[in-house]
Specification:
The complex is a heterodimer. By secondary structure, chain A is α+β, with helices and mostly antiparallel strands. Chain A is built from six helices and five strands, in the order E-E-E-E-E-H-H-H-H-H-H. Chain B is mostly helical. Classes of the chains: A alpha+beta, B mainly alpha. Chain B: Pfam families: Ribosomal_S15.
């Protein structure tokens, strides 16, 4: 006689050695209400090797009785969802440890950045004062001292001339302004940019962009479609463009 | 780590770490009676009978205790606040309390410094005066800066503003891409921040029942969202709960933030919030007694095991 086979879900594991609880679900016709109803039954199943995890879907097979409630054994794990979950849990812990280190480094870096900005502005104020004093100083020796001091600060921040017409500190307020002007520039010069992209030496870069932006293969793209995709890429200020 | 253990009952090698419990000292050893060789026949028999009786008692007690423990499984972490040593929560709390880059009302310290430097320069350019005048402008600007820093210090702002900052930080840490405000991870992270802020209030104001209810609802909401995430993207789910300091059982098991929780996790200190009836008290005492007895068995078994080791 063929062995009795059932498919069920592991609902409890780890409480008893080599034993799991498997829930088998089926439909039974209820004569009183003339309708099929769901019937569930839990079996204690032998699991030699303790392989199953909660959430696995398994096939169980009848065996000669080995204890008061155990007459089935695990035959096959059909969906190893529970095992996968257990794996994800360990992976998550490892990933978290790596990320925690990165995040602490990042917060230290941002604090350092604040310190740097404050010292830079203090230095710029000193620079202003030195330049002012230099203009009023009659003594040549004192003037030389001031010049060397000024040069030291200028060198530290890569400033070419002081007082300067170029922006010395980047302001977030101006970021939107700069972005808009960049977009305008790229829109006006898109013809030139496009021509550059179509040359031989930019071919590799062009293919990279096109494959990045669409799922269709690059050689199957129509010319105007490719142009539109390139325009979209170029008008995003975060991306670099040749001109 | 897998350990190949050959158990005496089976001939097959089983790859299992749980089966290594056989190495643990069996509490049954606590019943061991050491019969001296010069004991009389009747004395020896009494001791042997005593050993059998005690063994039965020990097996019954240990099994009853196991059953009780299986029925009353504790949560692995605090179901509301999560693990105490959680990095994410600690980071957010530090940013909200310390004077770092963040100022009140969403301003940043670096931008603030740059702007005020620009303002001072503009004032100096406009005056174009003597050294004395310049110096006076500099001092007024310095005073302005100090006043603004005091006003904008994160410690001087209101609770709502601090919460807004905390929520922003949570969003930035959990977002899938820039500008993501509604993925389940972000929603759960925001709720976690809100729950922590809410619990701070609840700890100080035990009588604010409405607020307790709000926090309770948020805890349930977070559970619901994370349950969805588990169905949708299990890998992200496990990473998110690990990052929030929660565990799977806290999300999937039934939990209500009631008096029992407040008492068990000592939210308001050692206050007794649930009064047990006479019957319940008796039952609890019996369980405590059982636990004590099982601990005693284990200790005695250890001692007896050592004696047996010395003899052999």
């Amino acid at each position: 006689m063929a062995k009795l086979n059932l498919v069920g879900l592991v609902v409890s594991q780890g409480k008893m050695a080599k034993t799991v609880k498997v829930r088998v679900q089926g439909k039974v016709y209820d004569k009183r209400i003339h309708k099929e109803v769901i019937k569930r039954k839990d079996y204690l199943v032998h699991d030699e090797g303790n392989l199953c995890k909660e959430g696995d879907i398994v096939r169980i097979e009848a065996i000669p009785r080995i204890s008061a409630r155990k007459t089935f054994a695990i035959a096959e794990i059909k969906v190893n969802k529970g095992q996968q979950f257990a794996l994800y849990e360990t992976i998550a812990q490892e990933r978290l440890q790596q990320q925690e280190q990165q995040l602490t480094d990042l917060s230290i870096k941002s604090r350092q950045e604040v310190e740097n900005t404050i010292t830079k502005i203090e230095d710029l104020k000193i620079l202003d004062k030195l330049v002012n004093r230099y203009q009023r100083e009659p003594d040549a020796e004192e003037q030389n001292k001031l010049v060397s001091e000024v040069n030291r600060i200028k060198e530290k921040y890569g400033i070419k001339s002081w007082p300067s017409t170029e922006p010395i500190v980047e302001l977030e307020l101006n970021a939107a302004d700069r972005e808009i002007s960049e977009i305008e520039r790229r829109t006006a010069n898109f013809g030139a940019i496009y021509e550059k992209y179509m040359t031989k030496e930019w071919e590799e870069e062009r293919n990279r962009i096109l494959s990045l932006m669409t799922k269709t293969p690059v050689d199957q793209l129509a010319k105007n479609t490719a142009k539109n995709i390139l325009r979209k890429y170029v008008l995003d200020v975060r991306n670099e463009c040749p001109v | 780590m897998f350990q190949a253990v050959r158990l005496f009952s089976t001939a097959r090698v089983v790859a299992d770490s749980a089966a290594s419990t056989s190495a643990k000292i069996n509490p049954k050893l606590a019943a061991k009676q050491f019969i001296s060789p010069d004991a009389s026949k009747s004395k020896a028999r009494t001791l042997r009978r005593k050993e059998v009786r005690l063994k039965k008692q020990i097996i019954r007690d240990v099994n009853n205790f196991k059953k009780h423990a299986a029925r009353n499984v504790q949560f692995q972490v605090d179901p509301v606040l999560g693990a105490a040593d959680n990095g994410f929560v600690a980071r957010v709390k530090q940013e909200v309390q310390d004077q770092g880059n963040h100022l009140a009302y969403g301003y940043e310290r670096t931008e603030f410094e740059k702007l005020l430097y620009g303002a001072e320069k503009a004032a100096l350019d406009k005056a174009k005066g003597t050294e004395v005048l310049n110096e006076s402008i500099r001092t007024t600007e310095e005073r302005k800066k100090r006043a603004l820093l005091t006003i904008l210090n994160i410690r001087n702002t209101n609770a709502q503003d601090r919460k807004t900052l905390a929520i922003r930080l949570a969003k930035e840490e959990f977002q899938r891409h820039e500008g993501d405000t509604a993925s389940p991870e972000v929603q759960a992270a925001i709720l976690t921040v809100k729950i922590h802020f809410g619990m701070d209030h609840v700890k100080q104001n035990p009588k604010d029942k409405d607020h307790i209810q709000i926090v309770r609802e948020m805890v349930q909401h977070r559970q619901r969202i994370l349950k969805y995430l588990k169905r949708d993207k299990p890998e992200t789910y496990y990473f998110t709960i690990a990052k929030l300091g929660l565990t799977d059982d806290v999300i999937t098991r039934e939990f209500n933030m009631g008096r029992q929780y407040f008492q068990d996790f000592k939210v308001w200190g050692d206050k007794q919030l649930i009064k047990l009836s006479e019957k319940q008290k008796k039952k609890a005492d019996a369980v405590a007694d059982l636990q004590k007895r099982v601990a005693e068995y284990n200790e005695l078994a250890k001692k007896n095991h050592e004696i047996l080791q010395d003899e052999s």
